[in-house]
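Ticket #4471: structure export looks truncated?
Reporter: QA, pipeline team
Priority: medium

Steps to reproduce: submit the single chain below to the structure queue and open the exported record.
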Amino acid sequence: MKARFNEINSTEELDELFRQSNENPVALFKHSLTCPISAGVYQEISNADADINLIIIQHSRSVSSALADKTSIRHESPQAIVIKDGKPVYHASHYDVTASDVEESLKS
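Actual output as written to the record:
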């Protein structure tokens, strides 16, 4: 596992990540502990050589909802979103999420 996960538990932490995205792109991953698809995609995203901000749906539903509101991207799980300058520059869900796509989005 290359990814460095940081679990996000509050909307304040999410707001800070949106501020940080003005300096560098930020990757977020919504993960469900009870979904077998999410478990498989978690393994895929674990291969990204990147900092991944993890939103566990069962722990932080309000953060997940806030992310959907801020990006206007409908909630799905699993779901990866990369934000830059406060706006989404990449998003994918389910088996469309790949470590290489997230890495590439963070570089651009």
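Status: closed, not a bug. The export was complete when the record was re-opened. Leaving a note from the reviewer for reference: The mean pLDDT is 96.
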